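Subject: for your reference before the review

Hello V.,

The reviewers asked for a structural picture of the protein, and I figured it would be easier to keep everything in one thread rather than splitting it across files. Below is the amino acid sequence we used in the manuscript, unchanged from the supplementary table.
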Amino acid sequence: MLYGFFQLPWWGYALVALALTHVTIASVTIYLHRCQAHRALDLHPLVSHFFRFWLWLTTAMKTKEWAAVHRKHHAKCETPEDPHSPQILGIRKVLTEGAELYAQARKDKDLVEQYGWGAPNDWMERHVYSNPRLAPWGLGLMFLIDVLCFGVLGITIWAVQMMWIPIWAAGVVNGLGHYLGYRNFETSDAATNLVPWGILIGGEELHNNHHAYPSSARLSNKWWEFDLGWFYIRVLSLFRLAKVKRIAPKVKVERSKLVADSETVRALMRNRFHVLTMYARTVILPVWKHERKRSPGEVSKALKKAKPLLVREDIRLDAERQRVLDKAISASESLETVYQFKCRLKEIWGKHMPHPEARLQELVAWCQEAEQSGIEALQEFAALLRGYTLKTTTA
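And here is what came back from the structure prediction:
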């Protein structure tokens, strides 16, 4: 019993621990996150039940509570109501107390009832997986299995399993995923992609992509990004064990289009964070660089300080930041113009309009005025936006 049923070299035990924790990661990203919280895919009952059983063994997390806390995170992101925003609570607290923040949020019964709709409610869920008296039984059963299989070292393997989700999901993804990394999309929150290869935590590394398209079953977006969770979903789909419902739409530009139409508006509404990214890179940054190069020392310093405020959508403008931004755009008529055009573009999809035609009319007017602005980068963007349309995509 000291060594258990399986005697392995040291690296064998390490691989076993990694494999077991990876099954837990796959259960969280495929079942809890993409399937339950965002309804991006349907899973075969056997697969779904396996994930539920495995999560009961390794985390004791309840589907309804997890989905509810995560949905509230999206609904209230980077506000005081966000259950785990490092922008509000501080990166240290989310990194070190992520599990505690989740536990605190799930105790809010109103939160769970409001956001936890659609979770499984069968006999096993009611009497086993969501039964608070049986939660320790699952963890205890996993402990017994580890010890029987691997002896004393099974205790270490079990401890690693217990720490994996609190560290990687509750800490790293919720913390660093809203604090540092790169961004493909200028979302209205601070979400970032930690690395372009979503392997260690099943694709959850691509967090900015996810916040841009929350209901997409695929978290990778660029050709050079890799989402291991999506790979697993595709394998399950081949065996008819999963059915993908939604992925992020792809866009194309039809440069032959001379006037925006309803398809342009539809593409704009579904890809607004992509449009903001394009606008920042192709309009604001070129104008900013030109104005900074030709400005005297003090003005150049002010423009440098204001750069993130001009392009980043997640930055909340308090009084000091607003002063920095106002100082920069007041020093450049061109910069002020392109910044105001960006604000007007955001209003097109942000305002409630009684009829879709009204939104189209505002977009057409925006493009016409942009082409008459005399600013080359803005004129080119307006011509590009006219031809903005959706590609036909397949999962």
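For the response letter, the relevant points are probably these. The chain has two domains: 10-244, 252-390. The chain has a mean pLDDT of 93.

Happy to draft the paragraph if you're swamped.

O.
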